[in-house]
Amino acid sequence: MDLNNGITIIGGGIGGLTVANALQKAGFAFDLYEQAPELTEAGAGIGLSNAALDILDRIDLGTDVRDQGVSIKNVYLADKQMNIRRKLAVRLDTVCIHRALLIDILKSRLPAESIHLSKQAVDVKSYPDYAEILFSDNTSIHSQCLIAADGINSLIRTKLYPEIRIRYINQTIWRGITKLEVPEMMQDSYVEIWDEGLRFLTVPYRPGEIFWLAVKTAPPGIQDNPETVREELLDLFDNFHPVIKKMISGSQGYLRNDMADLGTFRRPWSHNRIVFIGDSIHATTPNLGQGGCQAIEDAQCLALCLKSFFPDVEKSFSTYYRLRREKVMSIVKTSWQFGRAAHSRNPVKHYFYRALLEYAPAVLLEKQENKLNDLTYLEEIHENELAYTTTK
Ligand SMILES: Cc1cc2nc3c(=O)[nH]c(=O)nc-3n(C[C@H](O)[C@H](O)[C@H](O)COP(=O)(O)OP(=O)(O)OC[C@H]3O[C@@H](n4cnc5c(N)ncnc54)[C@H](O)[C@@H]3O)c2cc1C
Fold this sequence. Notes:
By secondary structure, the protein is of the alpha/beta class. It has helices at 14-25, 50-58, 62-68, 99-108, 155-160, 229-236, 242-250, 279-282, 291-309, 313-342, 347-359, 362-372; strands at 3-4, 7-10, 30-33, 45-48, 70-71, 74-78, 84-89, 95-98, 115-116, 121-126, 131-135, 140-143, 146-148, 167-179, 189-195, 198-206, 209-217, 255-261, 270-271, 274-276. It contains twelve helices and 20 strands.
């Protein structure tokens, strides 16, 4: 049997590309297989919090991300007429960047010969000593260490753990990008609006352009009609400030997603020689903007575990799981609760959360920010050159 020498990665999204960089830095050879004909991402922005940026620094990509993104200074909570209810300073380094630029940066240092495009995994077999992947072009590979980074609809997870199901929160989110000179406060800050059972978030990601997200309660599975979606969104946000309506009307396209996660019940993150990272095993609703950040943290933690324990793959996987699970599950849970409260039909619950955001002592919110950005769990695997150090 021809066993692939290095590590195999399935999926070339944020998680797959970050783990490729982290493995490369740790001295491993890898082969990455992506179903799409090119490595790129949807036309939208993505927020990266301090811990994710810290890891990108460790794999030498942080400067490029900061250079090509916008540093976020504040979060404003506002009502639909843009009256500011609260201003919260973002104390820790946070950047928003176009997703396609992030992917370009993540692939920029990887050897082209290790990236295999138009390779869709269609079946997987897991044995104690190796994994076998079959692709849609009828080729197959065998690997002694396979990383599944194939996203929330993971084929590999569905084959190995069919009991893990996607859980919908009954909220739909639209994303758009608009060329628009926005008020000064929007140019380096998030503005989050909760009103009339709707949410609208503005995110700067490039001078002269603004990225926005809009959320409403809706069952999953509804498709937009491209002919009418602009008018429908304008109707929905009809009573909102004119600048919000300008953002909606000026967008070239509208990405629509049903918000979902994989729940918080305990599940394995590996199976024999296969290990999962990112959305494939712990997708989270986007309320905290953390799914991509957690995929980046997984990638670094897994690479460090492999560096420390390889060829003991089992120990690498179990250490990775032990170090990562608690933080990730807490984020998935908080994000779900936040989304439920923001759109709760129970006015008491809704107003309680809103009041919490508006009036909670800053120290409480800072505690939450510190928790999200905590990387001390990596100290346990501290001893090599890639390891996290607290001296930074
Ligand atoms: C509206 C919205 C806003 C968000 N905002 C943020 C934010 O601000 N900050 C943040 O950190 N996160 C955010 N997220 C979450 C973030 O986008 C995801 O968590 C992140 O993209 C997960 O990365 P991943 O690599 O695990 O999976 P994915 O990005 O889904 O990548 C999976 C890759 O695997 C490939 N693939 C899938 N199946 C196969 C197969 N069978 N064979 C080969 N290849 C395959 C796919 O083509 C894809 O390239 C948001 C999500 C949404 C929906």
